[in-house]
Structure formats: structure tokens, C-alpha cells
UniProtKB/TrEMBL annotation:
<feature type="binding site">
    <location>
        <position position="181"/>
    </location>
    <ligand>
        <name>L-tyrosine</name>
    </ligand>
</feature>
<dbReference type="InterPro" id="IPR024107">
    <property type="entry name" value="Tyr-tRNA-ligase_bac_1"/>
</dbReference>
<keyword id="KW-0694">RNA-binding</keyword>
<dbReference type="InterPro" id="IPR024088">
    <property type="entry name" value="Tyr-tRNA-ligase_bac-type"/>
</dbReference>
<keyword id="KW-0030">Aminoacyl-tRNA synthetase</keyword>
<comment type="function">
    <text>Catalyzes the attachment of tyrosine to tRNA(Tyr) in a two-step reaction: tyrosine is first activated by ATP to form Tyr-AMP and then transferred to the acceptor end of tRNA(Tyr).</text>
</comment>
<dbReference type="InterPro" id="IPR002307">
    <property type="entry name" value="Tyr-tRNA-ligase"/>
</dbReference>
<keyword id="KW-0963">Cytoplasm</keyword>
<dbReference type="GO" id="GO:0006437">
    <property type="term" value="P:tyrosyl-tRNA aminoacylation"/>
</dbReference>
<dbReference type="GO" id="GO:0005829">
    <property type="term" value="C:cytosol"/>
</dbReference>
<dbReference type="InterPro" id="IPR002305">
    <property type="entry name" value="aa-tRNA-synth_Ic"/>
</dbReference>
<dbReference type="Pfam" id="PF00579">
    <property type="entry name" value="tRNA-synt_1b"/>
</dbReference>
<dbReference type="GO" id="GO:0005524">
    <property type="term" value="F:ATP binding"/>
</dbReference>
<protein>
    <recommendedName>
        <fullName>Tyrosine--tRNA ligase</fullName>
        <ecNumber>6.1.1.1</ecNumber>
    </recommendedName>
</protein>
<dbReference type="GO" id="GO:0004831">
    <property type="term" value="F:tyrosine-tRNA ligase activity"/>
</dbReference>
<keyword id="KW-0067">ATP-binding</keyword>
<dbReference type="InterPro" id="IPR036986">
    <property type="entry name" value="S4_RNA-bd_sf"/>
</dbReference>
Length: 416
């Protein structure tokens, strides 16, 4: 990155490592210096919550607001009915309107933790592209918008080309997605003066489409900025764990498990994660990331506390750290561990250890659970056991039983 920005927002983005590419640094920088810039990121409502993979772009919106500009979270109430084909091997399952609305409500809970939604000049807006997509007249849309798109060019986009190169079906429904997303940018500029779209680098083609369409239809200059697609230092996709997605809702993933995810970061990722996912000064991020030996663990605790505080609050972060210390340092149970509460009816005459391991989320399947136990990877109340068939009665569970898979994953099982 050789460009030196004058605006605070671009300076933060560049210094902290948020930018993969930008359509026009100089013009965007000038706009950021001269006015409050409305900028958006789109989110299709394919799940009931956002996950850690979304957090980098949420932080970009947060910094946008902190530097005086207006973040827009665009919910894909309309585009979710089509499904983004980008880099997928198959078509997304289609969701009902009711399920889409339910997912949007769940995602709103996450955004409210990071952004200030109000009527001030840079108060965040929550919009839904169903506002303009649901009422489109198909023939008018083809005539007024479709004529600006070249099928040859659309086929050249990597997100589409990779699918076709693998001889995997791409439906006409999905092929329309990039046109609808481009139309979103045009409509947001018309209705709300939106000047900037941000997103992951896999969205570059879609963003450029929207910029080009807006120039052709209403002769306005707007801008695009993408973030890098993040992987951990060992090459894994950011946000995935042994048990699936790292959700950003406390009722889908406990604050302790979220805290533990960050505490388990590899040494090489600490400085980068501190810059991207916290608001600590860059110099402090570098200092913490350069610590060696056992001191790097203190930096990981700071990382976990800072990120958890942003999402779940300072009390949840402190409780998670206290639980981790109790579990790891003192061999105790810890009050904030993930908990599985079973009814007396569920336990019946007894429930096997293998079943408890699966029900508590420490293994995905019974086969995985039995293997974990047979290989000595499971402890019950800090004692290793290899008896997968061991039965626990309701009386056994009146005092919570601590299950530990390896050194880092724990759960409490009790009777509700």
C-alpha cells in the first residue's frame, strides 16, 4: 500500500490492515474529507446469526462510524430469496419469507452491539433490499437495468467461472444475483446518497458491477473497498472450529466459548487479530504480538477480553476469563462453562457417557465421541475414562459433571 490518505477512516483502514483493494483511493479520500459518507455492507439472511467470519467487516463499519461517517447495514430480505452463488459448489436452499424475517431479527441483535443506530448525521441505518426488490416489474427491470449487463463479462467473473469450470450447475435464478446486488448500490445511492460499498474481496466483481451500473444509469461516481479474505496463520478459514461456526449470538454460542476461541489463537495471529478485531492502539497491538514464550499467553487473554467485551460486554469477558483460570489453573469447574441441562425424562434409567459427549457438543457424532473416549481424550471431573458406555443417572447429575475434551474444551452436564 503506497497511498497516504488524508481522511481518518482510510488511514485507520490501511494502518490496521483492513483493505485488500479500492476502486479509487484519491477520489474516495477526497469525499471522506469533504462530507459525511454513507457506506454499506450487504448481509443475506441465510442464518439466524452472523459468525466470526463477518466480524472483520462489522469492525470496518464500526470504524467508519467512529471516524464520523454513516454505516448502513443492508439486510438481504430480497436477495436471500435468490441466493449468492459466489464460490459455492451448489445452489443455496431457498428460505421462506417468514424464515428470512426471523433470521434478520437475529442478526440485528449482533449489529446493535457494534453500531449506534439513531437519527444523527452519522447514526447507523438498518435497511432491507426487499424495500425495492420485492416490487420490481420484471419487464421494466430487464429493459431499464438488464440491458447494461454483458453476459460475456458476467461469465468471466471468478465466482461464476469457477463454478462452470467444475461443470457444476448454475441456475438462472442464481445468475440474476449479481444484477440484483448491483441494483442495490444504485438504489442506495438514489434513496440515501450512499457513496461506498464495502465487502470481502470475493465481492469485488459484484461491487464493480454496482459502480458501473450507477454511472451508466444516473451518471454518479461511487466507490468500492474490499477487505482481505482472512485465514489463520495455519491456513484455516477464519471463524471455523472443530464444532462448526463461531456464532456472534450468546444464545447460539456462549460468551465463554467465544472468549476461548480467541484465547486459542496461534502466536503468529495475535498482532494481526488485535489490529483487526479490537480498538487497541496499533503500537500496543504490535508490542503484544511480539511477546515471546509464556508472555504471549497474556496477549491472547487481552485479545479474548477485548473482542468479547465488544460483543458481549465487559462482565461477560471477565466471567469467561475467571472461568478459564478456574478450569485451567486450579482444576476447578468454573461457573461460566457451556452447560447441558437434561430433564429427568431425558436421562431415564441412565444416559451413556458417549451420548453426553455428543449432547454437550464435545463431539459431532456418537462415533466421534466413542473414538475420543477410547483414545483417552476425555476426562470426567478431571479424571480420564475410556468407558464410553458408562451410565449416568439423574442422581449422578444432581451435582454438575464436568466433561473435558483435551485441554481446551469443557462442558458441564446437570439435571434441570
Amino acid at each position: 500500500m503506497t497511498y497516504t490518505p488524508k481522511s481518518e477512516f482510510l488511514a485507520v483502514m490501511i494502518e490496521r490492515g483492513y483493505i485488500a483493494d479500492c476502486t479509487n483511493y484519491q477520489a474516495l479520500d477526497a469525499a471522506l474529507m469533504s462530507q459525511v459518507v454513507p457506506a454499506y455492507i450487504g448481509y443475506d439472511a441465510t442464518a439466524a446469526s452472523l459468525h466470526v467470519g463477518h466480524l472483520l467487516n462489522i469492525m470496518m463499519l464500526r470504524w467508519l462510524q467512529k471516524t464520523g461517517h454513516q454505516p448502513i447495514t443492508l439486510m438481504g430480505g430480497g436477495t436471500t430469496k435468490v441466493g449468492d452463488p459466489s464460490f459455492r459448489s451448489d445452489e443455496r436452499p431457498l428460505l421462506t419469507p417468514a424464515k428470512i424475517d426471523e433470521n434478520i431479527a437475529g442478526m440485528q441483535q449482533v449489529f446493535a452491539r457494534f453500531l449506534r443506530y439513531d437519527d444523527s448525521a452519522n447514526g447507523a441505518k438498518m435497511l432491507n433490499n426487499a424495500e425495492w426488490l420485492d416490487s420490481l416489474n420484471y419487464l421494466e427491470f430487464l429493459r431499464d437495468i438488464g440491458r447494461h449487463f454483458s453476459v460475456n463479462r458476467m461469465l468471466s467473473f471468478e465466482s461464476v467461472k469457477s463454478r462452470l469450470d467444475r461443470e457444476q450447475s448454475l441456475s438462472f435464478l442464481e445468475f440474476n444475483y449479481m444484477i440484483l446486488q448491483a441494483y442495490d448500490f444504485l438504489e442506495l445511492n438514489r434513496r440515501y446518497g450512499t457513496l461506498l460499498q464495502m465487502g470481502g474481496s470475493d465481492q469485488w466483481g459484484n461491487i464493480v458491477n454496482g459502480i458501473d451500473l450507477t454511472r451508466r444509469v444516473i451518471d454518479k461516481e461511487i466507490y468500492g473497498l474490499t477487505s482481505p479474505l482472512l485465514t489463520t496463520s495455519d491456513g484455516k478459514k477464519m471463524g471455523k472450529s472443530a464444532n462448526g461456526a463461531i456464532w456472534l449470538r450468546g444464545d447460539m454460542l456462549s460468551p465463554y466459548e467465544f472468549w476461548q476461541f480467541w484465547r486459542n489463537s496461534t502466536d503468529a495471529d495475535v498482532a494481526r487479530f488485535l489490529k483487526l478485531y479490537t480498538e487497541l492502539p496499533v503500537a500496543e497491538c504490535d508490542r503484544l504480538g511480539n511477546l515471546g514464550g509464556s508472555e504471549i499467553n497474556a496477549a491472547k487473554i487481552i485479545l479474548a477480553n477485548e473482542v468479547t467485551t465488544l460483543l458481549h460486554g465487559a462482565e461477560a469477558a471477565a466471567a469467561a476469563e475467571a472461568t478459564a483460570r478456574e478450569v485451567f489453573e486450579n482444576g476447578g469447574v468454573g461457573d461460566d462453562l457451556p452447560q447441558l441441562a437434561l430433564s429427568v425424562d431425558e436421562v431415564g434409567d441412565g444416559i451413556s457417557l458417549a451420548q453426553l459427549v455428543v449432547r454437550s457438543g464435545l463431539a459431532k457424532t456418537g462415533k466421534d465421541g466413542k473414538r475420543l473416549i477410547a483414545e483417552g481424550g476425555l476426562k470426567v471431573n478431571d479424571e480420564t475414562t475410556v468407558d464410553a458406555g458408562r451410565l449416568f443417572t439423574a442422581a449422578d447429575l444432581e451435582v454438575p459433571v464436568k466433561l473435558s475434551a483435551g485441554k481446551k474444551r469443557h462442558a458441564l452436564v446437570s439435571i434441570s
